[in-house]
């Protein structure tokens, strides 16, 4: 890799950090870019760097080069931004989280009202598998500078404990009589498309809450779950305009794979007939 004095760049949060060419190279490799392309993009990026350069601009320049060379890799590289583009509503993100749990063998319901011992709660995703009920809160942000601090898991655990207490109250007799049909493990989880603070991660680990963010935990992060399952949001596609993506989301579609063979939906979103083949080819390459 080319060597030069470290240059400070500006993150979405406004904080500054030194540009790390290896970090950029790793993200390009994770997207599936070939080594020669990785080296060229890193070299071009370093040649255009200036103190205080926004990370968003660095991303845009790298993405533009990647898109010219290989659309599937560009779509994977775009994943973090694609998640931001699922908004403004958080419902598409809830659908995505539900789909990620479904491929792990859970039976999933999205957007459920559940009665607690004290009050009623809206639960974003309820997932059940072999006597385990997972109650999931989805914290969606459409700006990279937003993070979830320790107040979020504190609040969510209190809500989920209230629901668990209600269930235990209702089945107290059966549980005391040793009726194994009513044995159930209740777990809480929080999924976010950005990040948790260190205190939030520490509290989640201590309290038994499953926390999943863009890059946490090291194994099983949101990025890894999406890459492994190939359940990419349709906003990852590089062959669709922002307006076309929004029209598809308005039709209730969220995942790339939901667009396979859906020519009518694409046409209704404003995609011209002569572009359909190219869009479907990118979908097949990304989801195949």
TrEMBL record:
The keyword Cell membrane does not apply. Keywords: ATP-binding, Nucleotide-binding. InterPro entries: ATP-cone_dom (IPR005144), Restrct_endonuc-II-like (IPR011335), tRNA_endonuc-like_dom_sf (IPR011856). Signal peptide: none annotated. GO terms for molecular function: ATP binding; nucleic acid binding. Pfam families: ATP-cone. It comes from the Bacteria. Residues 7-88 form the ATP-cone domain. This is ATP-cone domain-containing protein. It comes from Cesiribacter andamanensis AMV16.
């Amino acid at each position: 890799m080319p060597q030069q004095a470290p240059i400070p760049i500006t993150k979405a949060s406004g904080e500054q950090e030194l540009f790390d060419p290896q970090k950029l190279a790793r993200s390009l490799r994770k997207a599936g870019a070939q080594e020669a392309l990785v080296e060229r993009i890193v070299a071009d990026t370093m040649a255009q760097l200036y103190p205080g350069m926004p990370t968003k601009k660095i991303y845009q320049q790298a993405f533009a080069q990647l898109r010219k060379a290989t659309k599937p890799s560009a779509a994977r590289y775009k994943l973090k931004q694609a998640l931001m583009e699922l908004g403004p509503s958080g419902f598409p993100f809830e659908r995505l989280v539900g789909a990620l749990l479904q491929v792990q063998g859970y039976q999933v319901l999205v957007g459920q009202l559940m009665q607690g011992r004290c009050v009623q709660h809206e639960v974003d995703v309820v997932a059940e598998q072999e006597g385990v009920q997972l109650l999931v809160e989805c914290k969606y942000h459409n700006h990279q500078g937003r993070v979830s601090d320790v107040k979020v898991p504190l609040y969510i655990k209190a809500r989920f404990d209230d629901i668990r207490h209600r269930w235990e109250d209702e089945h107290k007799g059966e549980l005391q009589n040793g009726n194994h049909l009513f044995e159930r493990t209740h777990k809480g989880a929080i999924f976010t498309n950005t990040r948790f603070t260190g205190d939030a991660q520490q509290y989640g680990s201590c309290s038994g809450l499953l926390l999943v963010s863009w890059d946490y935990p090291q194994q099983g992060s949101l990025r890894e779950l999406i890459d492994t399952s190939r359940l990419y949001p349709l906003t990852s596609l590089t062959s669709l305009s922002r307006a076309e993506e929004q029209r598809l989301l308005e039709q209730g579609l969220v995942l790339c794979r939901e667009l396979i063979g859906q020519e009518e939906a694409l046409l209704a979103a404003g995609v011209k007939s002569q572009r359909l083949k190219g869009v479907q080819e990118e979908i097949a390459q990304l989801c195949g």
